[in-house]
Amino acid sequence: MKYHFKQLLPAVIFSLLFAIAHSALAGTSTPNQPDTSIQTTKNSHKPPKVQIEIIGLDDELKANSMAYLELRKSIDNPHFSLAWLKKLHKKANKNISDAIHPFGYYHAIVTSTLEQNDDNSWLATYTVDKGKAVTLNLINIVIIGPANDDAEVLQSIDNFSIKAGDILVHETYENAKSDLIMSIARMGYSKISTQQKKVLIDLKTNHAEIHLTLDSGIKYYLGDFNIHQDFLNDDFIMTYIQNIKPGDSHSKDKLLEIQDDLLSSGYFSKADVQADYKKVNAEQQIPIDIFLEPSKRHKFSVGLGYDTQIETNLSLRWKNRRINRLGHNSDVISKFSPKQNYIRGSYWIPTGNPHTDKYGIISKFESEDTDTTDRDTFDLQVGYWFEWQKWDSSLFTEYKYERFTIGDDPRQDTELLSLGFSAEKFNYEKALFPRNGWEFTGQIRLASEELISDVSYARLYLKSQALFPIATNGRLNVRGELGLSGSSDFDSYPSSLRFYAGGDQSVRGYKWKALGPTDSNGEVTGGKNLLTASIEYNHKVAESWAIAGFVDTGNSYNDTLDKLFWGTGFGLRYISPIGLVRTDLGFPLTDDKDISTDNFVFYFGFEVTL
Question: Quick one: which H or E segment has residue 296?
Fold first, then answer.
């Protein structure tokens, strides 16, 4: 049978379409059956392991080179491959050369190798000869504007921290430039701007030039201070702005200093200091607006703590920040515990530099009941608190009435009118766990029977502590005490002024106030003099924990120091955001038939204020 071509054409086309469709379907996976051949290939691919070494650069240059290396950035990519490794290895020489340009090295020669190790990992090594650094042979700084004739500005340019002959380190230059601009701005040129800045490098001579042009703009001065508030006397507020006055050169730093001075006073919850450029007068003085909002007048706080010496204690505090428009303020502090209680009220009158100077009246009632002493003490103190040679100091007169019993002696009533001077200074690094710093406290006081007092006496007390960093996580704590006194009648000399040793802050291994002269019944009576010393090592073992080991020594005594008591032990410190929680286990090393001792004494102390 014969068919015409036109009759066969539809059948041929149909057959071709069927074959193409069948082929396409055969190569397509069903939705629930992934292509296992492709999946197997993906699972079998593992990025090559690569170790990178850079030889010939110091730590800073090496770190920057590592940061620039594209290879270093890519080796952790899950798609990293051997082909990728070889490609980035070829680019590494340029990466390293570019990385050390900012440090002044523009002629580096980098030699690279890529080796496969026995474990199929790879070692990429780059040996760098950084060559000679580019040095500065010209620093050209030009000031245009009024500052061009300002001797202070010209002096700051002469003091530019980069000099000809220095290596061109770009970061150092940028910092020096910023410091120069900020220093000129502090001189009153607050609108200073950069007109030109160029760093020209000649690689043939290996020299560079800095060209910097600054437009100083107009020099501004501080105008009148306009205080916006209605709760304190304006003149009193101005006493807190001690170092800045109208007519001084204007700068943002000075405005911030004013703000800090006001906020540190405690009277204000908000201090907004603004320069009003719209009201600049013909002398280029800018009025300063100071907007103030008051802190809450009353502040109450509660503290709960535990101290091995006085056991569980509760403290309460009430502060009245603002009694009148002259800034007078007061506070009442009380503390209650099984062994010691007191309540103290203070009235403060700021004067002079109110940041540091004030008059004060302090009234305090205290009771204490220990194993050997029972006393009730009333103190009324009037004094002047001030800063002297950067020391917090005070001159005071104190009336003291004390009723006390020591051991089995009869109760004594003593009245004193004392004159005194005290000074203290703290200088610790700012940290929750400082490792460096020191403190010192000293006080001298005296009284005479010619002026109300039942007893004439003189008393000196000194206390110091110093911290020294040891290695990376350690610190050495060294402290000591010295007390000296003399009186016309020691039997009537108040218990609160006598010296005792022993306890958490004295000689550990012995109970609080357990060391000192004793009476015929072995009761500690307190001494005329005191000497203690301690050395302690703290070592941080975690972010908030440290262990401690210590050795303490000392004693209180009357006329001669016949014996030193020694104690040793170890402890644990928890470094909390609100202070240090201390636990110590102290062991006595000195036996004495007149002093009652235990095999060990456990010390624990903390306080939380709400």
Answer: none
Instruction: Dihedral sign for Cα 113, 116, 118, 123, please.
Output: positive
Hey, what's the torsion of the CAs at 498, 607, 386, 271, to 10 degrees? -170
Q: Could you read off the pLDDT of 422-464 as tens digits, one per residue?
A: 999 999 998 889 999 999 999 999 999 999 999 999 999 999 9
Start-end of H helices in 187-280: 234-238, 252-263
Given a cut of 80, whether residue 334 has pLDDT beyond it is yes
Q: How far is CA 562 from the centre of its chain?
A: 44
Q: Report yes or no: 534 and 550 within 8 Å, Cβ to Cβ.
A: yes
Which residues have CB under 8 Å from 137's CB, separation 6+?
Answer: 164, 165, 207, 208, 209
Q: Residue holding tokens 């909002």? A: 293
pTM of the model: 0.75
Residue spans of the domains in the chain: they are 50-129, 135-215, 221-294, 298-609
User: Which residue carries 């730590």 as its tokens?
Assistant: 59
pLDDT tops 90 at residue 523: no
Whether residue 573 contacts residue 546, with contact meaning beta carbons closer than 8 Å, is answered with: yes
The CATH label, of 2.60.120.470, 3.40.50.1980, 3.10.20.310, 2.40.300.10, for the domain at 135-215 is 3.10.20.310
Question: Around Cβ 326, how many Cβ atoms within 10 Å?
Answer: 13
Query: What distances in angstroms separate CA 367 from CA 60, 339, 340, 404, one per listed residue?
Result: 63, 8, 6, 10
From the number of C-beta atoms within 10 Å of its C-beta (0-12, 13-18, 19+), residue 155 rates as exposed
Q: Structure tokens of 406?
A: 């020591």
* Consecutive H or E run containing 391: strand 391-406
State how far the alpha carbon of 435 is from the alpha carbons of 475, 544, 572, 581, in Å: 5, 14, 16, 16
So what's the architecture of 298-609 in CATH? Beta Barrel (2.40)
As a dihedral over the C-alpha atoms of residue 593, residue 594, residue 595, residue 597, rounded to 10 degrees, the angle is: 30
pLDDT over threshold 70, residue 5: no
Report, in angstroms and rounded to the nearest whole number, the Rg of the chain calculated over CA atoms.
39
Please give the Cα distance from 188 to 219 (Å, whole number).
5
- For residue range 157-182, what is the model confidence (pLDDT) as tens digits? 999 999 999 999 999 999 999 999 99
